[in-house]
Amino acid sequence: METGAYWLLYVVSFSGALLHWRLGNELLAALCGITALLSALLIGGIRITPVPR
What we know:
The chain crosses the membrane at residues 5-21, 27-48. Helix content is 75%, strand content 0%. It has two helices and no strands. Helix 1 runs antiparallel to helix 2 (26-44). The chain is elongated.
């Protein structure tokens, strides 16, 4: 379930980045692009913060 939500976030944010970039709104395109990158990392299971030992 959680991975499916990350995939949905990735698809929506990636398409939003392309749409905003095409319309000339670079700020929202960058925000959507960062969100797409974050969701791709979450899909891959990569930890953003180190795990304490």
